[in-house]
Write a structure and sequence with these properties.
The complex is a heterodimer of chains A (195) and B (91). Helix content of chain A is 63%, strand content 0%. Chain A is mostly helical. Chain B is mostly helical and 91 residues long. The longest helix of chain B is centred in the middle third of the chain and has 22 residues. Chain B starts with 10 loop residues before the first helix and ends with a helix. In chain B, 26% of the residues are buried.
């Protein structure tokens, strides 16, 4: 009897300590994905309020933290969806910078001036290099919103293609085209801005 | 599609397959295409290596982000707590 009571207690949500325990974590989670401090703040607040609305549904099947994160995650995906209309996914809008002329139309060969060259630093050093990471982050910002969303979801949550496709409503063939173009552009951007 | 696009010249397809291969299995024909192409194309070999490096850097970036230590300011936290309490009070 006693054991049962304890179990019930630990599976109940306790909104009074949410901010203290999870606000920073959720804020960071959001910031990395959206890179916008104001928006991140708003979404964390919205997450808490949305969670309160359905606190009765919290069954303790997951931890409070996982539960709150999943609510926040859905809000982030909504933003991605809103920002990226599937129709515009292969084209650039306002503030992005991408190129489409990497390969020759006739035979698919690299255009001479676009060919990859060595970065000029050993592979292991590249991975550890903070400046390189920083440049990658900058290059990511230049991608069209949908490309950015797909790339981020792929790496952040280690999510599978199928799931990303269904969440962002992208066809699987389109997905691979976007991944390819994203990578070709990122690589080019890194080569240009590195050293 | 032009007939001139052969396995030797088609770097666009090769780089596409390089990306696909990192996340899913290629068909037998695709695997063969990529093998033959890479054997003769040093530029795509560089691409492949750098593409893998970018994956690793991206993994690092997203899993241990530079601003992992960013904290929400106390003012915002107070405001959040306030709104939660308010809502709880109404229940």
């Amino acid at each position: 009897m006693e054991i049962k009571e304890i179990q019930i207690e630990t599976t109940q949500a306790n909104p009074h300590h949410w901010v203290m325990k999870y606000a920073d974590y959720l804020y960071n989670y959001c910031l990395v994905k959206l890179n916008d401090t104001e928006l991140a703040k708003d979404l964390v607040q919205e997450t808490f309020l949305a969670a309160l609305e359905k606190v009765e549904n919290f069954e303790g099947k997951s931890t409070e933290k996982t539960w709150l994160t999943s609510i926040l995650r859905n809000k982030i995906i909504d933003i991605y969806r809103r920002k990226s209309s599937p129709l515009s996914n292969l084209h650039c809008n306002s503030d992005c910078e991408i190129k489409h002329d990497f390969f020759q139309q006739e035979d698919g060969h690299w255009n001479i001036e676009q060919r990859p060259r060595e970065f000029g630093i050993s592979d292991r050093h590249t991975i550890e290099n903070k400046e390189f990471q920083h440049i990658l982050q900058k290059c990511l910002q230049k991608l069209p919103p949908l490309w950015h969303a797909i790339f981020t979801m792929k790496f952040m949550d280690d999510q599978e293609a199928v799931k990303i496709c269904s969440e962002l409503k992208v066809s699987s063939s389109n997905y691979w085209v976007i991944i390819h173009r994203t990578k070709v552009n990122l690589r080019d951007c890194l080569q240009k801005n590195w050293r | 599609m032009s007939l001139k696009k052969t396995v030797y010249t088609n770097c666009e397809k090769a780089t596409f397959l390089i990306e696909k291969q990192q996340a899913s299995k290629l068909s037998f024909i695709e695997t063969l295409f990529l093998k033959i192409h890479l054997a003769g194309c040093s530029v795509c070999k560089i691409y492949k290596r750098q593409s893998e490096i970018i994956n690793q850097v991206a993994n690092k970036l997203f899993h241990a982000p530079a601003h992992a230590q960013s904290k929400l300011d106390d003012e915002s936290k107070k405001e959040m707590q306030h709104r939660i309490d308010e809502k709880l009070g109404r229940k």
